[in-house]
């Protein structure tokens, strides 16, 4: 599903050049649950952003679902992204001015799904995340765990093939973190590919494979026994 | 989608209450000003447009060319002109003269008398040229009978009550009998021609013994209506020398002015007429709306940090830039629409005051198509303009930058420029207002060459001189009445002029000089406290003093006799001696200079009595009224004060001054809102820097100075630019006056001081709050 070849990402300011990713070669197949680990600043999030089509690499190839995308424009990336990828962030990233329902509905709006269909799907997703009773609330009226469940509902609403999670339990206590990880695991079992950046070894234990990054390099790839 | 978009926008609006209120108020104020100005402009442009085929109606005017190259343009034309044009040019379908009755007339009916001054003498064609609805009587040609009078509805009701008065008789000045031939609708307020009644020219000729066939005397307006499809320009070329062909030595060239332009455009080549005010205020409307738009841009982009995350998330989940631009534009259009609603309420509330200020009866007519189009255009242009930059700027954020936290605010520069432009415009408007006020006060207070204060004057009926002489004696007995005189006109507005003047040593081939002409009685010079440089004024001590002339300095200079009196000059057929030279005094608005003037004593022309009274006018005037009523029970004592007439000269300018002042205040308010927005943006962005500086030892004063200095830089720049712009604009304006002030540095320094003060007031609280905030509160989020 995802294949990178000699992927390089360099950040330049006027005087400093930082290599965030250096010759990263990866292959991730459909249905996999992959955890990316490594110390702060090793390039985990950069890699996730490139895989998530939020950013282009400086050099190298990037294949997504059979398309070679490293030179895609913003518009092309958006189109590919909205059909195929869902995001879950550490800080939830819900829009404060929208209700829970509207936050989850947002991707469907941009996919031009009809009103009745949107309603059905959002309600279904909220039920599934066990947050339907909060549909009319605004994000700030919810606990962190609830907010993250809304964010996951939003990520899955478009039935993406891939979910990218950037430290999804980073801002949560252990109980809520556990719940979120259960949801992600369940989604993976239903066939969604998941790539998760995490610092937490216990979260990483849920994955099939752990990719260790250090200073922009892939240092190890551990295949894990499926739990 | 639209519903969701609106929903989001309205929720945003509600959530950020202070921001929304500031923004909407700014826009509403801008929209209110613009609407008020547009309503006024629309009214000014509506003048006379109610006449059918107005584009075929023209006013004939004269360009009189003088020796010094001066061209004197006047609407006054000779008596035979109208008929002659109609006869000789097939292009002319109808032609009519128009002249106001010379003074008041006494109308009597059923034993009741009324003194009226709103009479017009016109030819029958007048009613074919202008659309004046006939209510009763002859619809086809209301004035075709030489013994008919046409009344306005107002006067008809006054004379006869609410009946059809056709066929009833009206007597004028006890001697002339008329029958009411028609009653016509009153002239609407936006008409250039106002009337209470119309009389035929037969009366004019007989009553004032006027030779209507004289090509050299100009007393009449001449209006023509051209045949359908005729080009007025071509006709102008044909009729240019029409007068010269009949009076070989005449300096007159005829010209045509479209009647559509009568109200707003001057016929003088180097003057623009009231259209100038219309243009200036349209510019002011645009400026204020621009300032309001800039405000919106400023405030909207100042919140960009808050909006950035929303933009990023929307993009991550699939929004394209186009959709986001739409979102932000919808937002600004919603804001503008709310502002418009508020603006319309403001306009409705302010219209009475604004009508008063403009001296017009202005109304808001929301059903009017023009108004609706204007409103839609204002909303769209304001909404799109003010939303354009925030939309493009905010939608350009890349989600990756926001998520990585490296996104930069690069709109700061533009925002500074916007605030600088806003302040420049406000300061420039302020300076202009001050200069206008200073000039007006200068004109009002400046020495006009005589003492215009404490002069009471009354208009008389014709041929009153005998009664006047008796009256004068009685008036002078009243304590507080110092001088009494009579004249054909008061020095606020001299209207008569002639070039038929000869003096010794006048060169044979020299071109004509236009002399103003005034007929004044004994004690005129004394009553008005004019300065006699040489000789004396008219005085009873020297007999009748007819065929004697008093001239002003300018006239003496033109005749080359600056310090000599006793010279013989001739005016028309009269030859007489110059007995006095008076210092130049202004007998018109100070916008124009002093023309050469000749005064002579001609009792039959007198029309006004001028009385110099003491400081405490009220009781003296009451005593004058008593004497008057005893003597002239049939003429109402409608006195006027010369100083009030004088103020009337500058009414247009004075109104413009007041309007400018109001709009300046508004511009400052909106600009301050803009500055407020900018400063809140800066304080938000500088919080970290300030916290760090404080951690490392900066005290409150250091930090305050640091922030204030930055803002000060822009204001100082605005002041500098505004100084330049307003200086040149006002120099240009002042040069239109014959007597003008020098602007001086005071106004400019005042403007600078005021804008700095406003700046300080606007930003002080915000900076103070930022400076006193505990560093830990800021840094813990890092």
UniProtKB/TrEMBL annotation, chain A:
<dbReference type="GO" id="GO:0005524">
    <property type="term" value="F:ATP binding"/>
</dbReference>
<dbReference type="InterPro" id="IPR003439">
    <property type="entry name" value="ABC_transporter-like_ATP-bd"/>
</dbReference>
<dbReference type="InterPro" id="IPR017871">
    <property type="entry name" value="ABC_transporter-like_CS"/>
</dbReference>
<keyword id="KW-0067">ATP-binding</keyword>
<dbReference type="InterPro" id="IPR017911">
    <property type="entry name" value="MacB-like_ATP-bd"/>
</dbReference>
<protein>
    <submittedName>
        <fullName>Phosphonate ABC transporter ATP-binding protein</fullName>
    </submittedName>
</protein>
<dbReference type="Pfam" id="PF00005">
    <property type="entry name" value="ABC_tran"/>
</dbReference>
<dbReference type="GO" id="GO:0022857">
    <property type="term" value="F:transmembrane transporter activity"/>
</dbReference>
<keyword id="KW-0813">Transport</keyword>
<feature type="domain" description="ABC transporter">
    <location>
        <begin position="2"/>
        <end position="227"/>
    </location>
</feature>
<dbReference type="GO" id="GO:0016887">
    <property type="term" value="F:ATP hydrolysis activity"/>
</dbReference>
<keyword id="KW-1278">Translocase</keyword>
<dbReference type="GO" id="GO:0098796">
    <property type="term" value="C:membrane protein complex"/>
</dbReference>
<dbReference type="InterPro" id="IPR003593">
    <property type="entry name" value="AAA+_ATPase"/>
</dbReference>
<comment type="similarity">
    <text>Belongs to the ABC transporter superfamily. Macrolide exporter (TC 3.A.1.122) family.</text>
</comment>
<keyword id="KW-0547">Nucleotide-binding</keyword>
<dbReference type="InterPro" id="IPR027417">
    <property type="entry name" value="P-loop_NTPase"/>
</dbReference>
Automatic annotation (TrEMBL), chain B:
<keyword id="KW-1003">Cell membrane</keyword>
<feature type="transmembrane region" description="Helical">
    <location>
        <begin position="324"/>
        <end position="351"/>
    </location>
</feature>
<dbReference type="Pfam" id="PF02687">
    <property type="entry name" value="FtsX"/>
</dbReference>
<feature type="transmembrane region" description="Helical">
    <location>
        <begin position="714"/>
        <end position="733"/>
    </location>
</feature>
<dbReference type="InterPro" id="IPR003838">
    <property type="entry name" value="ABC3_permease_C"/>
</dbReference>
<feature type="transmembrane region" description="Helical">
    <location>
        <begin position="371"/>
        <end position="397"/>
    </location>
</feature>
<dbReference type="GO" id="GO:0005886">
    <property type="term" value="C:plasma membrane"/>
</dbReference>
<dbReference type="GO" id="GO:0022857">
    <property type="term" value="F:transmembrane transporter activity"/>
</dbReference>
<dbReference type="InterPro" id="IPR025857">
    <property type="entry name" value="MacB_PCD"/>
</dbReference>
<feature type="domain" description="MacB-like periplasmic core">
    <location>
        <begin position="20"/>
        <end position="239"/>
    </location>
</feature>
<feature type="domain" description="ABC3 transporter permease C-terminal">
    <location>
        <begin position="283"/>
        <end position="395"/>
    </location>
</feature>
<keyword id="KW-0812">Transmembrane</keyword>
<keyword id="KW-0472">Membrane</keyword>
<feature type="transmembrane region" description="Helical">
    <location>
        <begin position="417"/>
        <end position="438"/>
    </location>
</feature>
<feature type="transmembrane region" description="Helical">
    <location>
        <begin position="21"/>
        <end position="43"/>
    </location>
</feature>
<keyword id="KW-1133">Transmembrane helix</keyword>
<feature type="transmembrane region" description="Helical">
    <location>
        <begin position="659"/>
        <end position="683"/>
    </location>
</feature>
<protein>
    <submittedName>
        <fullName>FtsX-like permease family protein</fullName>
    </submittedName>
</protein>
<feature type="transmembrane region" description="Helical">
    <location>
        <begin position="745"/>
        <end position="764"/>
    </location>
</feature>
<dbReference type="InterPro" id="IPR050250">
    <property type="entry name" value="Macrolide_Exporter_MacB"/>
</dbReference>
<dbReference type="Pfam" id="PF12704">
    <property type="entry name" value="MacB_PCD"/>
</dbReference>
<feature type="domain" description="ABC3 transporter permease C-terminal">
    <location>
        <begin position="662"/>
        <end position="773"/>
    </location>
</feature>
